[in-house]
Amino acid sequence: MVQIWQMEPYPCGDPRLPHHLFPPKKITPDELSKRTGTLYWKLDTLDQVALAKRLTTLKLEHNFKKEDIFTLDAETTANFDDKIEELFEESSVPFEQARMIIEGTAYYDVEDKNGQWVRIFCEYGDLILIPANTCFRFTTTPKNFVKMRRFYKEDAEE
Q1: Which residue range is the domain that position 14 belongs to?
Q2: For residue 26, is it within any domain?
Q3: Where are the annotated coiled coils located (predicted)?
Q4: Which residues contact 2 (CB under 8 A, 6 or more apart)?
């Protein structure tokens, strides 16, 4: 089951740590969608037919024309610490984007309508869709490795 929670308001230290509120405030995928517009699916990667259908539907419904594979690995990524710092900077883009984790683990943080950050722990088989103009940031977990498929609109600048 996916893990989603409200983050502490001013996380300090290593962004790759969980940064829970105390006591932790867990959030359901439905609450995530209501608060941020972000959609979440757990895909059955063993059923290749169902997986292909889900991804084809996603691409058609959201007009994703481009995709790539992105790997972030402490052992092979040049300037890994700088890259982590860059990806953890808050950003917002004028187009939807989708991410599917195919190896490793990562955190996606999404800002809700009240300015509070929600953290999504993403692992193998997780697919998220972040709406256009939504503030988000990204980091690995302390395992320092993630490999994902990224889906884009044709006119989106990467």
Answers
A1: 3-152
A2: yes
A3: none
A4: 29, 40, 42, 120, 121, 126
